[in-house]
Amino acid sequence: MQKGRLEAFSDGVLAIVITIMVLEIKVPHGDELSDLKPIIPVFLSYILSFIYLGIYWNNHHHMMHTVKKVSGGILWANLYLLFWLSLVPFVTGWMGENNFAPMTLALYGFILLMAAVAYFILQNRIIHVHGKDSLLAKALGTDLKGYLSPVFYILGIISSFFIPWLAGVFYILVAFMWLIPDMRIERILREVEKKED
Amino acid sequence: MQKGRLEAFSDGVLAIVITIMVLEIKVPHGDELSDLKPIIPVFLSYILSFIYLGIYWNNHHHMMHTVKKVSGGILWANLYLLFWLSLVPFVTGWMGENNFAPMTLALYGFILLMAAVAYFILQNRIIHVHGKDSLLAKALGTDLKGYLSPVFYILGIISSFFIPWLAGVFYILVAFMWLIPDMRIERILREVEKKED
Amino acid sequence: MQKGRLEAFSDGVLAIVITIMVLEIKVPHGDELSDLKPIIPVFLSYILSFIYLGIYWNNHHHMMHTVKKVSGGILWANLYLLFWLSLVPFVTGWMGENNFAPMTLALYGFILLMAAVAYFILQNRIIHVHGKDSLLAKALGTDLKGYLSPVFYILGIISSFFIPWLAGVFYILVAFMWLIPDMRIERILREVEKKED
Amino acid sequence: MQKGRLEAFSDGVLAIVITIMVLEIKVPHGDELSDLKPIIPVFLSYILSFIYLGIYWNNHHHMMHTVKKVSGGILWANLYLLFWLSLVPFVTGWMGENNFAPMTLALYGFILLMAAVAYFILQNRIIHVHGKDSLLAKALGTDLKGYLSPVFYILGIISSFFIPWLAGVFYILVAFMWLIPDMRIERILREVEKKED
Hints:
The structure is a homotetramer.
Chain A lengths: L1 H19 L19 H26 L6 H15 L1 H10 L4 H29 L4 H6 L3 H19 L1 H16 L3 H14 L1
């Protein structure tokens, strides 16, 4: 029951964050197709951020599946993650409206990095409460994607100031890497369900 | 349980999308009835989009009823649908503020078309997971409305550039067609319930 | 289960409607107490609308308690109610920013009237589905408040053009009348629960 | 069940309040790091308010755990609390955009004070309905934090006009005091669960 409300609140915040981003796509004044041109970078950033938030919702969904009891630490680690994700609309807007200028690309990567760290903390809190033999601990295994993402974000941040388009490549790369759903947890869960039958 | 959270998140996003559209109806500065005149087209587009989003929520609600297990594919197909629906407030605002100019009518139809395609993909994902003998597969039957809608949207998009008001007629027509609730699924569900008694 | 999602969606829309109203209270540029003066009417309208939406949420909550099966008619009657309630932030903002000018007061009353009619339709749809001996039908009894409200709204709308402050009195009066919780339904529900014990 | 919807609605409002605050962080026009400078105070106020709303959500979550039946009084006390919390984005924005000017600091404290009083009322309503031997009544004990917070808020409000930075210290102090999770309720709940085993 406790878990239910944690999920409901996270779903609420993520649903709102993902949707208010669209408010950054300001309706242009003209009625020609060419009037949409200035909002193309805003739109592209919107797509990238939508995918990222979708990934977070998806992984959050899978991770919460393994949670059995919710401690105060998990509640706050979850809020800390939501804090960083709540800043995504701001950096998305800044990046889009300034046509992917170096500093905006770097800040976008920084927020992604902070969110990844927060996700990591939440994951550790859950494992801490449920034990090293818990479902999540097993499912994560070496957690390669979890370790690679921050590295790519940092490479992206650095690239922003020298080869801006490369930063974009790094951010898109991480997204693609995660789009492949977290098979590990799904697989372990399936095995557990089989055993229980 | 998995399904519950998918529904909750979709409900959240749809509730927000339907509500932030109202933010596009900017409060006019004067206090006379005539000051409301310029927002009449914005208001009319709001009504149409409200009905469309209501239809999507309604059909989504019926379709999810038939879902028994949620795969990663279903999660992402659902997010893809929400992505296109999240753009409805933008095209509604653009169309309303430009008094139904041709290009804005066409883009409105394009977003509706993309959402219809996304709904189609989600439907297929669900049938794929649940089998061709599943409730949804049976309930859909020939899915006439599902096939007609994209055709009408395309006719609407084309009309936008030649006979703008005809585009509006097409979009309203599709809405009316769907307002007739998805009897098929309701009927099949009722039969199944009867058998179980 | 069906009912659960209807409630969740309605809760979502009402929560957003009630909260985005606060976006109409624009942050003033100065930092003195006197800089808040121009937003006093906006704030007063916010309070009134917050109470009204609270009443709707409360009564909706009680009414839904009596619902056992959800028909397509109920779904759409509910969406129709949400449509009118979604316009409350707009009329609240218009009324507040124009210092309760006659026409804005009248439109505010008109939206309240339309919402009341929509609530009435939803109520009838539910009774239609559940029968005249249903809990809701019994609980409503003569439904005095339900019949008085539209009368007061209409008196308020007419007053707007002649004695503006009287319109405000009417709208506040209806709110107070409803603030007394819907004892009828609560009482009947308690009796039913007693019998079941 | 009744409780479920109360929680869902509160979660919805809190999720939206916490998220629309981010809309007050307006995207700056330049693309340099220095362009972010003017929004630093807005950002700092955002962090403080995010923590406060997180605390309220957390404590609300714990308190609702002890609730067994929901009366009309509890519903309205809850709405009254949500009303004051819904004003947090406004005072956060005003304080941030005016660089923590005295009057904005005082109003921020005033809203926190009103929310604390509302929380107190809700708490009393719940104890009133559930009896003095109820879980919540026991868990609260002397409720030191509950009594200290309003005192600190009032000290903060007074400080605003003489030593502004001290007001900030008071507000941060209360936040830290509450960040230590409400062990009392958690502990009592755990004991109760033990006894039941």
